[in-house]
Specification:
single chain; 282 residues; alpha/beta; Aspartate Aminotransferase, domain 2; Aspartate Aminotransferase, domain 1; four-stranded mixed beta sheet; three-stranded antiparallel beta sheet; globular; binds pyridoxal-5'-phosphate
């Protein structure tokens, strides 16, 4: 199983050689489709030797990472794995029409299918949203989606790599995610301080502390929809936060100051959510 492009925002160029080696050893290749946003309309996963891939509709087609989901992902199979696919599935015919294959007919037509999925329809709203997005963009529009998402991420990367450490900045252009570490932040300041400071600047913070292989990771995924003005505003905010940290501005340590809540115990908030208003909680 491989994620390509990977979580450091890099495209694995030797993918075909990797797949060939796996196939030569009698194996199959699974690809995590989490970063499809960078290559949609540009690369056909089947051409890279991938046999199975889920497409995170809640990431690529209209929603950025961290956009809240709900998660939804059709799984696509190569010709080699197709006969074993679970029922029900959709089948595409030569004349272009699609049918939903249910279990009654699949028994005769697809005797090697491994059986019926208990849950199939998934998050219907995400499917509708993704389909709408795909149809409204068309093939050329989806290619543009990938190009704009990648361009936007590289613009963020190169606009900030003088104030924030970009651990893979030397590897050339990134894919649709710009990755920074906390390496350039002064003693006493952390990625969390920058993320909380962004709330005061009016931005939903980027993904932080992921991927785990990068210390204090800040993973910025602007997507294809941001305007240059919006990106410039974000870059300006992040730059000013990095400079405030460098200047030793300790007010950053208690940000956010302009949100309804200060810093929460996020683990407790997730494990024991208080869903009703209680005045004594402040
Ligand atoms: C988002 C993400 C996941 C998790 O996928 P979900 O479908 O959102 O649960 C796994 N791997 C990578 C690399 C991701 O970016």
């Amino acid at each position: 199983m491989i994620t390509n492009p990977n979580t450091c925002g890099l495209f694995e160029r030797d993918m075909k050689a990797i797949s060939d080696a796996v196939h030569a050893a009698g194996g199959y290749v699974y690809c995590d489709g989490a970063n499809f946003n960078a290559i949609v309309g540009k690369v056909r996963p089947g051409d890279l030797g991938i046999d199975a891939m889920h497409i995170n509709l809640h990431k690529t087609f209209s929603t950025p990472h961290g956009g809240g989901g709900p998660g939804s992902g059709p799984v696509v199979l190569s010709k080699a794995l197709c006969p074993y696919g679970p029922i029900p599935f959709t089948e595409l015919f030569e004349d272009g029409h699609l049918t939903l294959v249910e279990e009654e007919t699949a028994g005769e037509r697809h005797p090697q299918s491994f059986g019926r999925m208990a849950a199939f329809h998934g998050q219907m709203g995400m499917f509708t949203r993704a389909l709408t997005y795909i149809l409204s963009h068309g093939a050329d529009g989806l290619r543009q989606v990938a190009e704009d998402a990648v361009l936007n991420a590289n613009y963020v990367l190169r606009s900030l790599d003088d104030v924030l450490d970009a651990p893979f900045g030397g590897a050339g252009p990134c894919m649709h995610e710009a990755l920074f570490s906390d390496d350039n932040l002064p003693e006493g300041f952390s990625t969390l301080d920058i993320a909380k400071g962004l709330i005061d600047e009016g931005f939903h913070p980027m993904t932080v502390y992921f991927p785990l292989v990068v210390h204090g990771a800040m993973l910025v995924e602007p997507t294809e929809t941001e305007s240059k003005a919006g990106l410039d505003r974000f870059i300006g905010s992040l730059r000013s936060l990095a400079q405030r940290a460098k200047a030793g501005d300790t007010s950053l340590k208690s940000a956010p100051h302009f949100a309804p809540r200060r810093r929460l115990d996020e683990t407790q908030a997730a494990r024991k959510p208080v869903l009703a208003w209680r005045g004594d909680l402040g």
